[in-house]
Design a protein that fits this description.
There is one protein chain. The protein has helices at 2-22, 74-92, and strands spanning 42-47, 56-61, 66-70. The protein has 93 residues and is α+β, with helices and mostly antiparallel strands. It has one domain (27-92): OB fold (Dihydrolipoamide Acetyltransferase, E2P), CATH 2.40.50.
Amino acid sequence: MKTLCLSLGLLLVVASEALQYSTSPVKCCNVVSNTRVPRNKVSSIKKTHNSCMKKGFIVKTVKGKLICFDQSFEWAKNLYKQIRNAEGNRLQQ
């Protein structure tokens, strides 16, 4: 009986910890832009989370502003590739 209670208690602790990580906030885009941002003003770019209804890219400017772009916007796709390649080259050095 003690083993069962200990096992259930441990399971509850582990499950609550896992739930905390799975419910963390996810950045999604509700509104997308079609205005290009100069490359020297871009700090980072990442894809929206898979759970987001609108798939796209989130660009962070050097001033900290977040701008969303649709995944089909060619400029955003090219920017994503450029930044990913630059990061990969930096890691190899």
